[in-house]
Specification:
With 287 residues, this protein is mainly beta. The protein contains 4 helices and 18 strands. The strands form 3 sheets. Strands 1, 2, 3, 4, 5, 6, 7, 8, 9, 10 and 11 form an 11-stranded mixed beta sheet that branches. A 4-stranded antiparallel beta sheet has the order 15-14-17-18, with no helix packed on it. Strands 12-13-16 form a 3-stranded antiparallel beta sheet, with no helix packed on it. The longest helix is centred in the first third of the chain and has 14 residues.
Length: 287
């Protein structure tokens, strides 16, 4: 029964949610998933081919929809893709007409969004789109090593919308429209590490003007200067935009610090500053 419901969902998505697009990089624009790529040798690929061959066009193409495809890959060829979209008729709960549950058939990796306890390779969300929306992302892998999360493509409003990935483990909020995000992981299942966002609250102007914990960061003579007005600085961590830690100072035990040990490469850096009262400030600079 669950298989039947899923296939019905795939059929609906093929004709409604994903017309004229495809999940993989193949040229089959009449389908959403290329199961032969995502789920190798899975018996569902034959069923999918029949669905693809009977593809129906019509009213589905008139629905308002804004979609984002994300890839999770490694250099050895592991690959999984998910889709998050905002489409006419969807709700923010589970929708059998729009949502597709991950089969978790890839032995090496699974990558999904989460809603109401389900792991979704396809998640349809309600209109209107809001940049305050956040989507939890999870993954499973049997591989210990480095993986990369990237934007494959987007359409509708999401074509020009900022897209951020929050890594709760490293405390990094990464701009996926600027570059891909590479991270290290052990083997296992991780459902509380990543959040997809469309607004980076940690880097707003308000943070620079916080009256309780004002912290200034500026560049001067090939160095990075940090000044905390009221609290001493406990520790500092500097990351590249990919999440790599390149500098740390702990304990600092002063309210001012001048960093000269980082090579100047005209790159985007994320500076995490922890004050003595455990308040955390985050700054993004180009250095």
């Amino acid at each position: 029964m669950r298989l039947k419901l899923f296939l019905l969902s795939v059929f609906t998505l093929t004709n409604v949610f994903s017309q004229n697009t495809n999940l993989s990089s193949s040229n089959d624009n009449g389908s959403f998933y290329d199961y032969n790529r995502i789920i190798k040798n899975d018996k569902l690929s034959n069923i999918h081919n029949k669905i693809r061959d009977n593809h129906i066009t019509g009213k589905a193409s008139l629905l308002e929809r804004h979609r984002l495809w994300l890839n999770m890959t490694n250099t050895e060829g592991a690959f999984k893709q998910l889709l998050i979209g905002y489409i006419e008729g969807a709700t923010n709960g589970l929708d059998s007409d729009f949502d597709g549950i991950s089969l978790d058939a890839n032995p090496y990796i699974d990558f999904y969004s989460m809603n109401s306890g389900s792991n979704l390779v396809i998640q349809g969300l309600a209109l209107p789109f809001s940049d305050t929306n956040e989507v939890e992302l999870g993954y499973r892998t049997i591989i210990t090593g480095k993986f990369t999360i990237s934007i494959d493509h987007a359409d509708g409003l999401l074509t020009n919308q900022a897209v951020f990935l929050e890594d709760k483990l490293t405390k990094i909020v990464h701009d996926l429209k600027v570059s891909d995000y590479t991270f290290a992981t052990t083997a296992g299942t991780f459902k509380d590490r990543f959040v997809l966002k469309y607004k980076n609250q940690s880097l707003t102007t308000h943070d620079f003007e916080n009256q309780n914990n004002p912290v200034l960061v500026w560049l001067d003579n090939e160095s990075i200067n940090i000044n905390s007005a009221f609290q001493n600085i406990n520790s500092i961590f500097v990351y590249t935009i990919s999440g790599k830690l390149i500098y740390t100072d702990n304990p600092v035990s002063t309210n001012k610090i001048n960093i000269v040990d980082i090579e100047h490469n005209n790159q985007v850096l994320i500076i995490k500053i922890i004050l003595d009262n455990n308040h955390i400030e985050t700054r993004k600079i180009i250095y």
